[in-house]
Design goal:
single chain, about 240 residues, mainly alpha, rod-shaped
């Protein structure tokens, strides 16, 4: 079946162009292809918005943590706060929230990091519910078009009082095309959804790992110990 589909698309691309064939099949799919297309467009719009937002939120966390530790060691908490304020992304925002409460104690800083971390997590995951909705709606609309196409085919049989391939061909074609369109929408949006989830998980993991390092650095700062190892002493 897979080889047959590949052969079909290759022949279609050679004869009339792939895009023209897609448009032709879309028109042959009937009116239910439009809701399927709208679901795809809205889903892709949400996916692109999430990708842009997540890329802006993504930074080199390890490098940033080291910069914060150096700022704490050289300029104390105010210098680290200034660095976090000038850095984009949820990791910097969570760090800044913890540093703002660091003077009240380590427990207060931990509580602030946990609270603000939850807020940042919800911000990262915003829109994924709608993307998941369109992943479900796309195939369902396709299946609804399938039912309508089959009803149309049986109506044609009833009206003609005869079973002929030419009578049911249009209804069956509509049924198959809407099913294919709905499944294609679901596959495309599911890939986008999984990509967003994997990127969010990595950002959250970096945020949690960095928060632990920040708390340890604040403890070392309050104890008057060195936060960043001295390269000169390590070489010696």
């Amino acid at each position: 079946m897979t080889s047959s589909l590949a052969l079909f698309f290759l022949q279609a691309g050679a004869d009339a162009g792939f895009f023209n064939v897609i448009v032709e099949k879309f028109n042959e799919g009937g009116e239910f292809m439009w809701p399927v297309l709208i679901a795809l467009i809205l889903g892709l719009a949400i996916f692109l918005e999430r990708i842009i937002t997540l890329n802006l939120a993504d930074i080199n966390t390890r490098k940033f943590i080291l910069e914060v530790q150096e700022a704490l060691q050289e300029g104390g908490i105010p210098a680290a706060q200034e660095l976090c304020a000038s850095t984009r992304g949820p990791v910097a925002s969570v760090f800044q929230a913890g540093l703002m409460r660091a003077d009240e104690g380590v427990e207060a800083a931990e509580k602030a990091i946990t609270t603000y971390g939850s807020i940042e997590m919800s911000f990262l995951e915003r829109g994924l519910v709608w993307l998941s909705l369109f992943i479900s709606i796309g195939p369902l609309l396709g299946f609804l078009g399938t039912v309508v196409g089959m009803i149309e085919a049986f109506d044609a049989i009833e009206a003609a009082a005869d079973i002929s391939p030419s009578l049911v061909a249009r209804g069956i074609k509509i049924a198959l095309l809407t099913t294919a369109g709905g499944l294609l929408v679901g596959i495309i949006l599911q890939i986008g959804y999984n990509y967003c989830v994997s990127k969010i998980d990595r950002i959250i993991s970096d945020m949690e790992e960095g928060s632990i390092t920040l708390i340890d650095s604040i403890i070392l700062l309050k104890e008057g110990k060195q936060i960043v190892p001295d390269n000169d002493s390590d070489e010696a």
